Amino acid sequence: MSLSPAVPSIVFVVAMITPRMFMSNVCNLYVQCLTFFVQCVNSYFNKYLTNIGHSHILRNTTMNTHRIHRVAKLTGLSRDVIRVWERRFGLLKPTRGANRYRNYSDEDVALLRYLKQQLDAGASIGDLAKLGREELITRLRAEAPRTAVVDNTFDRLLRELLSALEPLDRVTFEKRLNGAVAVVPFEEALHGILLPLQERVGDLWHSGRISIAVEHYVTSQIQQKLYAAMNQLPVAEFGAKVVVACPPGEEHDIAALAVAYRCRVRGCRVYYLGSNVPITSLSRLCREVVPDLTILSLTLVLREGHAAELIHSLAEELKPVTTVIAGGHGARMMRGQFAQDGIDVLDTFSELDEVLERFTRRFTIPG
Ligand code: B12
Fold first, then answer.
1. Distance 210 CA to ligand 1 centre (A)
2. Atom 36 of ligand 1 has which residue's CA nearest to it?
3. Which one is the CATH code of 152-229: 1.25.40.10, 3.60.20.10, 3.40.50.1110, 1.10.1240.10?
């Protein structure tokens, strides 16, 4: 039987086309998978980070839950002690995960650290427990910025970091800092490591024990960490609009950055302006953007006359367009002047969370 002369050419054409079709199908499939993956990642970020007002995070005002072994590590208390305090005094409120393990909140961890600190200072657990959880939380919030500094868990790390500064050992410093920040949830690293490090390093500079160059080096390391963490977050398109700035003359910008990060992570559209922003310029931006909230961070304590003038101009320029709140050591010291101009001063980041929750609720889709 002889083959038609057309057959070899048909076989040739099929042989040429089939792998290409196959390859192009494989490519299409690959592209589709990739698109699906990108969509999943996007919707994850949108659901959990951009519109955080819809999730559980804001309702709890804290971000993380921890199993008991981690709580023990974070607080320096044994698991047995934690269980006994939980059972006997009812001070902790762990939830149960799907696997039935107890999950402790950041607030539980903070409370345990506070209790340990009070015991170390001579208080008795019986007396402390009588105060009840709510009162203890109120007290610990009032002391929050300082408790981070005395936190046992991070204390050793901070000492190691500081000892790598005099003389400056960049490799050790950066390896230890990067290593620690990489393994701890960022918000915990921020309040347990970065902010206390900034305060201590600044103190060393102020007391003449390290040079301004070394202080600038550490400050810039901390700023890099904060910017890097913020850049990991999706650009929010919805949510409360928040402007964060330091008023004119204020160069201490680390706390403002931390505030901006906190607002970003809670789903706000953040306009972070940084240090030393002139009032006219801040006011122009607020008129353009019409933020729901403008947050000022003030570390410096100004002379009375100067403070009154600055706060009055801020209020006059900003309050017609936006709600203004302030925080930071300077703001707390000048609370009276802020109050006269109707600007609330916040003491802690937990208070900031409460304010953000109020604003974010407006953007929550019902159901
Ligand atoms: C680091 C530092 C610097 C760095 C700042 C680097 C930077 N980019 O931020 C540099 C070297 C630039 C600096 C310069 C100066 N500094 Co300085 N500095 C400090 C130091 C050591 C730490 C400040 C800091 O960043 N702390 C870390 C942040 C996170 O803490 P914080 O600002 O206290 O904020 C906490 C809370 O207040 C809260 N918070 C802050 N803002 C907000 C906002 C909201 C809404 C909320 C909820 C919470 C909140 O969050 C933080 C959480 O712990 C402090 C001393 C100290 N230990 O605090 C002195 C200090 C603030 N500096 C001081 C001074 C005097 C100066 C200079 C005038 C010194 C000089 N001779 O030049 C200049 C002024 C610069 C200027 N015009 O602003 C004084 C201020 C005294 C006063 N009563 O006003 C202090 C207190 C030192 C001292 N004991 O004398 N400084």
1. 16
2. 328
3. 1.10.1240.10
